[in-house]
Amino acid sequence: MTKRILLFGWAVAALGGGQLNGDARREAMKKLDFLVGKWTGEATVTKTPGPSLKVSETQEVEFKNDGTMLTIESKGDGFEALATISYNAAKSSYLYNAVRDGEQVSAEFQLMPRGFAWRGALGAMVASSAMRLDEKGEWLETTQQAIGSAPPQTTFEVKLRRAALFDGKWITTVSCEASRGALGYSFRFESEVKDGKFLGLHGTEGEPSSLKIEGKISEDGSATLYAAGRTGGKEFVPGRDTPRGTEYNYTIDAHFRDNKGTGKRIEGRACALVFERE
Q: How far apart are CA 276 and CA 171, in angstroms?
């Protein structure tokens, strides 16, 4: 498969003469904040002659350079891409370049409501692309190429959805202090966050010595998680008179940031939780 490498706006005009104003550049770049985040989905690559090929693709978009540049890092089956978009305050226009198979193209770039478009020459070929967010908030992008007077041919189609920031596999550690004659304990188990929803299970659900934790993580990393379990040995249960396999429930106040998270049990004995992304 031909590698697809696109570089959005690497050029940053030279400073001088007061023509570029940092505040103006930052304000202009804020109009692109709808792109920021992690996106995952599928791309369709069409190469003539030959059948179309579907590949997975992820894009991570974030601001850099004190908010004056937007970077787009793309990865997929058989390709990687790095992209940037910046703003030329002197010309009141966005800066965009593209690189593919070692060739660089300077392209016209247009910002549109909930999207953008670019068009530029790549050797003897003219490439263009149009991107927009649909009503579901999905990233839809179509890239076309044309050689000479030939009609444009669609070569790349992308459909991505914004991924929750904390999606992935996590190791959860639950540690509870000794209480009312009961011994303290600690155990670890694998959990998963998918579409922002946390789910972890220690042991076998419904059986003694089991614990299930689930809940929704907000974009700011805060979460209220709910734990439901069944007791194990009496020596670990406050009072030591609770039958093995007795149901219990509690709420967890949790906070996630990057690859780590912490939580504490709200009701009952003091328990602390630690979350570590794998």
A: 5
